[in-house]
From TrEMBL:
<dbReference type="GO" id="GO:0005739">
    <property type="term" value="C:mitochondrion"/>
</dbReference>
<dbReference type="Pfam" id="PF00587">
    <property type="entry name" value="tRNA-synt_2b"/>
</dbReference>
<protein>
    <recommendedName>
        <fullName>proline--tRNA ligase</fullName>
        <ecNumber>6.1.1.15</ecNumber>
    </recommendedName>
</protein>
<dbReference type="InterPro" id="IPR002314">
    <property type="entry name" value="aa-tRNA-synt_IIb"/>
</dbReference>
<dbReference type="InterPro" id="IPR045864">
    <property type="entry name" value="aa-tRNA-synth_II/BPL/LPL"/>
</dbReference>
<keyword id="KW-0436">Ligase</keyword>
<keyword id="KW-0030">Aminoacyl-tRNA synthetase</keyword>
<dbReference type="GO" id="GO:0004827">
    <property type="term" value="F:proline-tRNA ligase activity"/>
</dbReference>
<dbReference type="GO" id="GO:0005524">
    <property type="term" value="F:ATP binding"/>
</dbReference>
<dbReference type="GO" id="GO:0006433">
    <property type="term" value="P:prolyl-tRNA aminoacylation"/>
</dbReference>
<dbReference type="InterPro" id="IPR036621">
    <property type="entry name" value="Anticodon-bd_dom_sf"/>
</dbReference>
<dbReference type="InterPro" id="IPR002316">
    <property type="entry name" value="Pro-tRNA-ligase_IIa"/>
</dbReference>
<keyword id="KW-0648">Protein biosynthesis</keyword>
<dbReference type="InterPro" id="IPR050062">
    <property type="entry name" value="Pro-tRNA_synthetase"/>
</dbReference>
<keyword id="KW-0547">Nucleotide-binding</keyword>
<keyword id="KW-0067">ATP-binding</keyword>
<feature type="domain" description="Aminoacyl-transfer RNA synthetases class-II family profile">
    <location>
        <begin position="66"/>
        <end position="311"/>
    </location>
</feature>
Amino acid sequence: MVLNYASRLFWKRSLIDKKIKNSHALMLANGFFYQTCKGQFAFLPLGQRVLDKLSLLIEAELNNIGGQKCSLPSMAPASLWKRTGRWQEYGSIMFKLKDRERTEFCLQPTAEEMMTDIVANYGTITPGALPLLLYQTTEKYRNEERPEFGSIRCSQFLMNDLYSFDVDKATASETYGVISAVYKRILFNRLGLNETRMVEADNGDMGGDVSHEYHLPNVAAQDHIGVCNTCGSSRLWGPDVTCEPCNTVMQKMPTIEIGHTFMLGTRYTEAFGAKDEGGVPYFMNCFGLGVTRLLGASIDLLSSATIMRLPEALSVFKVAIILPKPISTSSASLDFAYSIMNDLDDFEHLKDDILIEDRTQKSVGQRLTHLNQLGIPHIFVVQAKKSYKPHDTIRIEYFRTEPRSFELIDCGILNHSQMFDVLRNIDRK
């Protein structure tokens, strides 16, 4: 069993900067990342744990429908982007550079060109392999004019992008529906973000004729959608604010876009010659979830100004055990705590997800406060007394935290057996 000890973590709790927005301030204060310069962040061990959990969760769902993981270079030659005309269309939002031979490259904000070029040149895909679903979770780059709000709008960000190739428009439409359903499962079922809104959108410079955006409510308000309080429908905010089904005025909701999906048709496959055995260009879709943006938007949605909360599936650790302060007259409680730790091998589903809060120079109250601020769902405190009689039972205090609830939930006093029952039944997802 891998146990994580608080005393050994590269982690420093700092004061919250009230001049910056919520998720940005909370992630800095809780040691999730370090700002290296405007628009760029180095993710530190605690933040990286959460990013890894989110990436693996998304990838597991894509693997379940036949997705295959790749890893494409961050840098792409300009020649690829010029074949679709997007080298010019992207303009200054794209980071552009030249190598020592003066060949032009870009830092990719997305990878339709490169992925299609690979499919076109790798060889004919057998009909039984369709739809072909290729995805990656890699860094992307945008030369933002005003990077702000931490991981919400930054120059370098982590994105999961999937590209599908089908034999015709009808099967491409079916694939689009399948992956859209996976996105809903990720956002609603796995992450519990029931406020997510899916709205029709413009395809813009991506091409194609069908597009949807996924939005979460967010006071940072990069975007706005209209929401009907009568039927619950929603759409991008625009000049016409009338709900068509209800003929009522929609309410304006500030949101942040966390995902975007497109039916691209044959724009890219024709440009690169990605064709089936009969010489017909494949029909292509693409799907993107902003991993770092989704993390920041989730924290904004679920947290208070001072207490961070995450979807429980993404919690930094599922369990924390607070060791008692050493008492010179008795070591019984510490011995008991160490005996618990020796028995944790029985809980394989909690592997690498248990934090031992062993910073005994801090009071139990201070450590409880820090764990509450991190949003760890299950917290156990081994009680300590100055002396124990031979038949005394050492008790364990049990606390819970939950998304959208900012006070510790006191679940009472447990004995050894009851604590292990709780550990055994913690969600195994």
